[in-house]
Design goal:
Elements: H1 3-19, H2 26-37, H3 46-61, H4 63-78, H5 84-110, H6 120-137, H7 151-163, H8 171-181, H9 186-207, H10 209-213, H11 222-248, H12 253-273
């Protein structure tokens, strides 16, 4: 096995793991990496593979929240429990479903065209858009907690997530901006963002099982795939923890500055060197 090939896949795994949870667009970074270093993974299933690794890391970070919600849903449906916790988590789950519907529909309709022929210059512009959106909510301190969510809030966050189908627009950034714009406090906004990531990512993985099974590169690239998967898993875990700390300390502006810098660089590079 070519050591350079392994290093390339590990690098892509690290890039995915770091950038997927934080609001800087992992898809945009993959476009930039491909352009700058002529580095691109073979096989249709690779990006889905890495997204699944990020999903597992996020499931682990929020395992207690997920188990509590599932427990309360079980009590709500099978035990007919109508106490405050059971009702709250039932409603919360409904809001997650509502917020998932728009991107689910749009993702299926556009799955064959999203990401095709995206240039580094286009990604740069979208990173600037992400930076501006993050700048506007950097000092926002909402008062709503999980129980304060409404159907309207869920629809707004769901529509914000649709925008993130565009490479260069961060999914976590778009949903974070949407969540904070409707008044959620930082902790509740971040929780909603990552719990919302789960059905979207899981749905993508399930509808892409055929692509993974039929990918002719799987057998030949088993080792690079496995190593990049592990790197993504670990990197995503620490990136989520870092983002939680950043949000707690009110330093969201650093992601805005980063998007401005990388977006400007991407645009200049595209129009000068490409």
């Amino acid at each position: 096995m070519d050591i350079i090939l392994i290093i390339k896949y590990v690098f892509l795994g690290l890039l995915q793991g770091i950038t997927e949870p934080i609001p800087v667009s992992s898809s945009g970074h993959l476009v930039i990496a491909r352009e700058l270093f002529n580095i691109e993974a073979r096989g249709l299933s690779f990006e889905i593979f890495l997204n699944t690794a990020s999903l597992l890391a996020i499931l682990f970070v929020y395992r207690n929240d997920i188990l509590a919600i599932l427990s309360n849903l079980y009590r709500y449906f099978f035990k007919r429990a109508r106490d405050e916790e059971a009702v709250k988590d039932f409603k919360y789950t409904m809001y997650l479903i509502i917020a998932t519907i728009p991107v689910g529909i749009l993702g299926v309709l556009l799955k064959d065209v999203i990401g095709d022929n995206i240039s580094m210059g286009f990604v740069g512009v979208m990173l600037l858009v992400t930076g501006v959106a993050l700048w506007f909510i950097k000092n926002k301190r909402g008062q709503k907690r999980d129980g304060g969510l409404t159907v309207r809030d869920s629809i707004i966050v769901g529509l914000a997530q649709c925008i993130a189908l565009t490479p260069g627009i961060s999914r976590s950034g778009a949903t974070l901006v949407g969540s904070m714009a409707v008044g959620l406090n930082q902790k509740s906004a971040l929780r909603f963002v990552f719990l919302l990531y789960i059905p979207v990512s899981l749905g993508t993985a399930l509808i892409s099982v055929g692509d993974i099974v039929n990918d002719p590169e799987i057998a030949a690239l088993a080792l690079p795939y496995a190593l990049s998967f592990l790197v993504t898993l670990v990197a995503t875990y620490f990136a989520v923890k870092w983002l939680q700390n950043v949000m707690q300390n009110g330093n969201l502006a650093i992601f805005s500055y980063y998007c401005f810098a990388l977006g400007t660089f991407s645009i200049l590079y595209y129009y000068i060197f490409v």
